[in-house]
Write a structure and sequence with these properties.
Elements: H1 5-17, H2 20-29, H3 31-39, H4 48-65, H5 74-102, H6 107-113, H7 135-140, H8 144-153, H9 159-166, H10 170-188
Helix pairs in contact: 1-2, 2-4, 3-5, 4-5, 8-10
Length: about 190
């Protein structure tokens, strides 16, 4: 199934003249897809206007990349690009969190320097260091369903929402979480 004539006219108008009206028509047409994608993710400090702005930016870029002479659906291409864009935003936010964690002074460093805030000195005990790993690289190993289930573990998504979205039950979510754990253990070696 190819692109419909009205949609093709809007895409060409954006490509040829950068038409804001045509772009807005496309964004309005794909609003249900945009809302479904937005509802699957959470970004701190992102409100509805921010999400809509991101949707417009990706729609504009998708129009410029779309080849109108090919017989493929614009909507599927836009959905794929918007989903990837939002995932990149989530990864970026997680990277910022990791960066702030790297700027913290570790307990081991404080023990070596013997400098503790407010005169606090921890009890002596064995420390077990966790191996370092790149969260983005680990997340790339997960399927979409496993990624969504992983967000349930992190309390970023509700289990019921994921079940509804993927038309599955809680047992399937728990199995996906177990696969995430297994992949994490394999990744950490």
């Amino acid at each position: 199934m190819g692109i419909n004539k009205t949609e093709l006219t809007w895409v060409r108008a954006v490509q040829d003249t950068g038409s804001s009206d045509a772009l807005e028509q496309l964004v309005v047409k794909y609003q249900p897809m945009i809302q479904a994608t937005i509802n699957r993710f959470y970004l701190r400090m992102f409100d509805q206007d921010d999400w809509q702005q991101e949707a417009r930016i990706v729609c504009y870029e998708t129009c410029l990349l779309y080849e109108t002479q090919r017989n493929c659906q614009f909507g599927a291409f836009y959905k794929l690009r918007f989903d990837h864009h939002v995932r990149n935003l989530v990864r970026h936010e997680l990277a910022i969190k990791r960066q702030s964690n790297r700027q913290n002074i570790s307990l081991e460093e404080m023990m070596i320097a013997e400098t503790f805030p407010n005169g606090f000195a921890p009890a002596q005990h064995e420390t077990h260091a966790l191996p370092e790993f790149d969260l983005t690289e680990y997340l790339a190993l997960l399927s979409n369903f496993e990624f969504e289930s992983f967000q349930v573990v992190l309390n970023l998504r509700r289990e019921q929402d994921v079940c509804h979205e993927y038309n599955c039950d809680q047992i399937q979510i728990k199995r996906a979480i177990a696969r995430c754990h297994k992949k994490l253990r394999l990744y950490l070696g």
